[in-house]
Amino acid sequence: MSEHRIEKIESLIHQVLGEMIQREFTPPEGALVSLTRIAVSGNLQEAKVYISVIPDRLGNEVVGNLQKNAWRFQEELNKKLKMRPVPKIIFAADRQAAQAQAVETIMEQLKK
Fold it and tell me: Which CATH number fits domain 3-111: 3.40.50.2300, 3.30.300.20, 3.40.190.10, 3.30.200.20?
């Protein structure tokens, strides 16, 4: 599969899922949820959807809730994307933001 085609598919899934999550998903009180990136497998069978949650302690809860309702997102994605096969979406927590924050905190402590 061409890398350019996979990037286009990732971008399209990111756009469609981002709109759906914003419209249809209610995060826990005090949580900020963002879709950070999509990683589509080379054979287009799966798309890992990385979700960043602030505060990080709510990450597992949010990803779990999204995964429980993945069929709803998948159903709408199947309707909106004009391609076959439509990759199966799998939600995963993106820990990069939390790791970056931890590094920033350590750097600030070292400055003091």
Answer: 3.30.300.20
Q: Which whole-number Å values give the CA distances from 16 to 19, 79, 83, 86, 109, in the listed order?
A: 5, 11, 14, 13, 40
Q: What residue type is assigned to position 90 of the chain?
A: I
User: Tens-digit pLDDT profile for the chain (112 aa)?
Assistant: 578 889 999 999 999 999 998 898 888 888 888 899 999 998 989 999 999 888 878 888 889 999 998 999 999 888 888 888 889 999 998 877 667 777 777 888 888 7
| Closest to 93 (Cα-Cα) out of 33, 45, 42 | 33
The pTM for the full model equals 0.80
CA-nearest of 29, 28, 40, 31 to 3 is 40
